[in-house]
TrEMBL record:
InterPro entries: Glyas_Bleomycin-R_OHBP_Dase (IPR029068), MeMalonyl-CoA_epimerase (IPR017515), MMCE/EMCE_epimerase (IPR051785), VOC_core (IPR037523). Keywords: Metal-binding. CDD domains: MMCE. Residues 4-135 form the VOC domain. Belongs to the methylmalonyl-CoA epimerase family. This is VOC family protein. It comes from the Bacteria. It holds the Pfam family Glyoxalase_4.
Length: 139
């Protein structure tokens, strides 16, 4: 199963300050900025591009229920997850399960850009939050 790095998600406390840093210091272009109140997301997201490398800045919108807020409270701001693009998400999930790698079924969703995604259980990934994703509309 082929994989390639899709993006890195970074948990931040102040979205605009982070956007300014990425644009003014790193030379990034903002691809999109949107708010998602979907349970299990509850964040404002800015997608930044630096020469084809994408970073998603994730700022919690609900400090009680947002997983990003929980992450910041437990680990502080910084890299939240690493996302790998796969050819077919359903096949990738079967592959993982055959290797006894658990996925977090409640995280499966399609975002506003048509990206289907699911997170792997960090207990099976040495504690790293890993996302697998595909873009079925591009096929």
């Amino acid at each position: 199963m082929d994989k390639q790095l899709d993006h890195i998600g970074v948990a931040v406390r102040q979205l605009q300050e982070s956007i300014d840093f990425y644009q003014n210091i790193l030379g990034a272009t903002m691809i999109d900025r949107y708010r998602s109140e979907t349970p299990g997301v509850e964040s404002e997201i800015a997608i930044m591009d630096i020469n084809g490398a994408r970073t998603e800045l994730l700022c919690p919108t609900n400090n009680t229920t947002s997983p990003i807020a929980r992450f910041i409270k437990q680990k502080g701001k910084g890299v939240h997850h690493v996302a790998y693009r796969v050819e077919n998400l359903d096949e990738a999930i079967k592959f993982l399960k055959n290797d006894h790698i658990r996925v977090m079924e409640d995280t499966r969703r399609t975002n506003k850009h048509g990206r289907q995604l699911i997170y792997l259980n960090p207990a099976d990934t040495e504690g790293t939050i890993i996302e697998f994703c595909d873009y079925p509309d591009e096929k």
